[in-house]
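Why does residue order matter? Because the sequence determines the fold. Keep that principle in mind as you read this record.
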Amino acid sequence: YRFLKKYGKKAVDFSYKYLYCVLLDALIVFVLSLILFLIMGVDHAVVLALMIGVFNVVPYFGAILAGIIAVLITLMTANTSTAVILGVAIFILQQIDCNIIQPHLVKESLDVKPFWVLVGILVGGGVFGIWGIILAVPVMAVLKTIIFDYVEYKSETKEEALKAESK
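Structure:
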């Protein structure tokens, strides 16, 4: 019962922290996209930036899908060169987000390595669909905590056994 209570509380804490990070990241991406699109003079800049910010909530794949949709809409409403420049600009923005902004936010609150986030997203998405993708990061944070606590417990138990033997 203590185990479930302890890690259930951690799961809730990680979920809140992750939700905060994701929403803050989505807001940052929305604002940066909006500024970028307004500077470029893209039609429907607010709607496209909002779409990119909202899709950014879905880890990794959401930003890619939103970028493709934004480029296709721009291709239909403007000329090819504007769509290509927009695609490159979105790609650069996504790289900045994925490599600088988002890792900083998640690392500070959950301390989960990007490799394990990707593994969690792929497995979670494959097994549970969109909910698995959204909940993958908090689940991986809880699993990491459980594993680290177990290893620490085993290490302490082994040390105590060695001390008892030496007496």
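The chain has a mean pLDDT of 88.
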